[in-house]
Specification:
Blueprint (H helix, E strand, L loop, with lengths): L1 H10 L3 H41 L2 E4 L3 H4 L9 H10 L4 E13 L2 E10 L1 H7 L6 E4 L9 E4 L1 H7 L6 E7 L5 E12 L4 H6 E5 H8 L7 E4 L7 H11 L4 E4 H4 L1 H8 L1 H30 L1 H9 L4 H36 L2 E2 L9 E2 L2 E2 L3 E2 L5 H27 L3 H5 L3
Parallel strand pairs: 3-8, 5-7
Antiparallel strand pairs: 1-9, 1-10, 2-3, 2-6, 2-9, 4-7, 5-8, 6-7, 11-14, 12-13
Length: about 400
């Protein structure tokens, strides 16, 4: 501890210079803590919107169903699959799909109809609560329909309006009926916004004469089970079916998440370089101011490694003071951004989607251990490395020349 007490006194010999260095490095740390929290919040927002809203972490289909979404590529024994998943405590929702035409007054559009169990959807996913107007489907079949935001806009419909629906049924007949709009979804991604029309499963079966066909089972544990473990359980529960994780279903989002760490390191390097130059400059100035002092120490028998250690201790103390100041400033900012966030709605005239996934206009941070300790620990290392050059200069001084230095 004596070495650190001495290092603390030496660091504050020039109070103004040390204060400026501590403020500059501390500001870097504060910015890194806040920005890392924001970036982690962005990634969590994307993944959460992609999985918790509707897609789930893993999906089960018949092979090549996603290529054409054919009505006839339905899962075999879906109730057996769901039963096996329930045995492992895995929440899952079964869905049916079919294409058709919807019309309101003089406007019409193609739609992808979803047959869902409203109660199960509300328990497993968040889409039922992701409404801009109206309410989700009732627990009982009442010929209600929930539309994607862009589809509702193109049809110029609102809650309570009546739609004419015409489809090609599974038995080859022409299915048609009237449905009342019960709700309109918030932006949930390009495909859902543009095409989705959700029906109660019983209404779907009646309209499409589907005979109970199930085309998709979506699993969502909200992170309770690791992704690969969940994928393995789905394989065992549905032999012969096609099992895909959200990373395979949304490769662009997966690639963006994979590049997150790399991009953050590149971002960090700018701040670490600035901090390293500041610390090196401070330590160099302190070293040249104390050349005679180091010369006397070497003349009295102090070894170069002892001098190297002393200068490194000063750099460590300087880094400690800087990172503590940075944490004191950065953590309150990060917690504020976590609770309140940044409202970006003023910069966008419409719905924001990235990689086909809706982005919440209120950008909130996520404060985690990684977003705090990584900038702090790496900043310590950078400061210590930056001190090696001034320390090496001090350690290699010639005692006679150093004592005579003016």
């Amino acid at each position: 501890m004596a070495i650190f007490r001495m290092a603390w006194r030496n660091v504050w010999r020039n109070k103004r210079r040390t204060a400026v260095t501590v403020a500059a490095v501390g500001l870097n740390v504060a910015i890194l803590i806040a920005s890392t929290g924001l970036m982690e919040g962005m990634m969590e927002n994307f993944v959460s919107n992609a999985t918790n809203l509707v897609a789930g972490e893993v999906q089960i289909h018949m092979p090549k169903f996603l290529v054409d979404r054919s009505m006839y590529k339905s899962l075999k024994s879906p109730e057996t699959i769901l039963g096996r998943l329930r045995e492992h405590g895995i929440p899952a929702s079964a869905r049916s799909y079919g294409f058709g035409l919807v019309a309101h007054e003089t406007k019409s559009a193609g739609a992808l109809f979803w047959g869902v169990n409203p109660v199960v959807e509300q328990n497993v996913f968040d889409l039922a609560r992701h409404l801009v107007r109206g309410a989700f489907l009732a627990p009982r079949a009442e010929k209600g329909v929930v539309l994607g935001k862009k589809l509702a806009r193109s049809l110029n419909v609102s809650v309570g309006d009546e739609l004419v629906v015409v489809v090609q049924a599974a038995d080859g007949s022409l299915g048609n009926d009237l449905y009342r709009v019960t709700g309109i979804l918030k932006s949930a991604g390009n495909i859902i916004d543009r095409d989705a029309a959700l029906l109660h499963r019983q209404d779907f079966q009646t309209l499409f004469v589907s005979g109970g066909r199930i085309h998709e089972i979506a699993l969502n544990t909200r992170g309770a089970i690791p992704l690969e473990a969940l994928r393995s359980l789905a394989f065992r529960s549905a032999p012969g079916a096609e099992v895909k994780t959200w990373r395979q279903l949304m490769p662009s989002l997966s690639d963006m998440v994979g590049l997150f760490d790399t991009s953050m390191w590149l971002f960090w390097m700018i701040f670490f370089l600035a901090a390293a130059l500041g610390v090196m400059n401070t330590m160099l100035m302190a070293t040249f101011e104390r050349i005679r002092e180091f010369g006397v120490l070497k003349a009295l028998g102090t070894g170069p490694w002892r001098i190297l250690r002393d200068v490194a201790a000063e750099a460590f103390v300087l880094a400690l003071a800087s990172t503590l100041a940075g944490m004191a400033l950065g953590l309150p900012i990060a917690f504020y951004l976590q609770e309140v966030g940044l409202d970006l709605s003023m910069f966008s005239t419409g719905d924001v989607t990235i990689a086909g996934v809706a982005f919440d206009p209120t950008w909130k941070a996520v404060v985690s251990a990684k977003s705090v300790y990584m900038p702090v620990v790496v900043m310590w290392i950078v400061c210590l490395i930056a001190s090696l050059y001034p320390a090496a200069i001090a350690a290699r001084l010639d005692p006679v020349k150093a004592i005579a230095h003016v």
